[in-house]
TrEMBL record:
Key word Amino-acid biosynthesis present: no
Gene designation per UniProt: mtnP
CDD domains in the cross-refs: MTAP_SsMTAPII_like_MTIP
Subunit-level organization: Homohexamer. Dimer of a homotrimer.
Nucleoside phosphorylase domain residues: 5-242
Function text: Catalyzes the reversible phosphorylation of S-methyl-5'-thioadenosine (MTA) to adenine and 5-methylthioribose-1-phosphate. Involved in the breakdown of MTA, a major by-product of polyamine biosynthesis. Responsible for the first step in the methionine salvage pathway after MTA has been generated from S-adenosylmethionine. Has broad substrate specificity with 6-aminopurine nucleosides as preferred substrates.
Name of the molecule in the record: S-methyl-5'-thioadenosine phosphorylase
InterPro entries on file: MTAP, Nucleoside_phosphorylase_d, Nucleoside_phosphorylase_sf
GO cellular component: cytosol
Record organism: Thalassovita autumnalis
Annotated site (Important for substrate specificity): S166, V222
Chemical reaction(s) catalysed: S-methyl-5'-thioadenosine + phosphate = 5-(methylsulfanyl)-alpha-D-ribose 1-phosphate + adenine
Length: 290
């Protein structure tokens, strides 16, 4: 099967250059419009698609990003592997602004977003015990190391609703009691939806600040974040462009089963399924719904 890498670029990353046959394409989905058109092309002989999570010009807030449409659109294009690139705050002294973290766990504190493609008329429960793909995460770690980026392997990302940053009490709780490593506003429900869509998903978190817990750094300040983001964004793009060569143009089935997540997940009896919802699931769950 062909590898098709989909990159969801976060704050500060609104395009990538150097794709052959680059073209911004409009993808329509049953879940509404994605955040923006999707930049498609080929890099090092491998198909790539790039979607700016907040849209070009940063139009969508973390709450209003159309997460379902974004994942559906990538799946509909034929993407097999999704790399999420995000700005985040750090809860660890040793994870400093400018460092990258290959996130492997999440705590989802978001509450104002649609979190599933499934629902009344087609109920499904997938496992997100291991929400990121180890194979894809390893490739991201190697790409970051090869690019000379200071990168931490593994970390727990607290997904908050936003758009305001955390209070000091929240920041301390996430760090001291909950053991989180980084904080952002967008990787959930994105990672859960990628699993429902049977896509491999890896999260590259680019640290921009120490959130508000750090005694030497005070409050989170978006102008400081943007300054760090500018440097991070170049490193993020460098990392992403190393992935095609590392992953190769051909891929086997995912050894961790990301691409079979729906195999035993759908509970609704075939005769009880809502035809309208089943139709909406054509891209996401077509493999199992037929
Ligand atoms: C620019 S600061 C807050 C903003 O940045 C992050 O976005 P993304 O994850 O898309 O890089 C964070 O989650 C907030 O949305
Ligand atoms: N401290 C922080 N909290 C939430 N999202 C962020 N994105 C970048 N820094 C952040």
């Amino acid at each position: 099967m062909d590898t098709y890498i989909g990159v969801i670029g976060g704050s500060g990353i609104y395009e990538i250059d150097g794709l052959e046959n680059a073209e911004w394409v409009t993808v329509e989905t049953p879940w509404g419009a994605p955040s923006d058109q999707i930049l498609t092309g080929v890099y090092d002989g491998v198909k790539m698609a790039f979607l700016p999570r907040h849209g070009r010009g940063h139009v969508h807030s973390p709450t209003t990003v159309p997460y379902r449409a974004n994942i559906d659109a990538l799946k509909r294009l034929g993407v097999t592997d999704v790399i999420s690139v995000s700005a985040c705050g750090s809860f660890r002294d040793e994870m400093a602004p400018g460092d990258f973290v290959i996130v492997d766990q999440f705590i989802d504190r978001t509450f104002a977003r649609e979190k599933s493609f499934f629902g009344t008329g087609c109920v499904a429960h997938v496992s997100v015990a291991h929400p990121t793909c180890p194979r894809l995460s390893e490739a991201c770690f190697t790409a970051a190391t090869d690019a000379g980026i200071k990168v931490h392997k593994g970390g727990t990302y607290l997904a908050m609703e936003g758009p305001q940053f955390s209070t000091l009490a929240e920041s301390k709780m996430y760090r001291e009691s909950w053991g989180c490593d980084v904080i952002g506003m967008t990787n959930m429900p994105e990672a859960k939806l990628a699993r429902e869509a049977e896509l491999c998903y890896a999260s590259v978190a680019m640290i921009t600040d120490y959130d508000s817990w750090h005694p030497d750094h005070g409050e989170v300040d978006v102008t400081e974040i943007i300054k760090t983001l500018v440097g991070n964004a170049d490193k993020g793009r460098d990392l992403v462009k190393r992935l095609p060569a590392l992953l190769g143009a051909e891929r086997d089935d995912c050894p961790h089963g990301c691409d079979k997540a729906l195999e035993f997940a759908i509970l609704t009896a075939p005769e009880k399924r809502d035809p309208a919802l089943v139709a909406k699931l054509d891209a996401v769950a077509g493999r199992v719904l037929g």
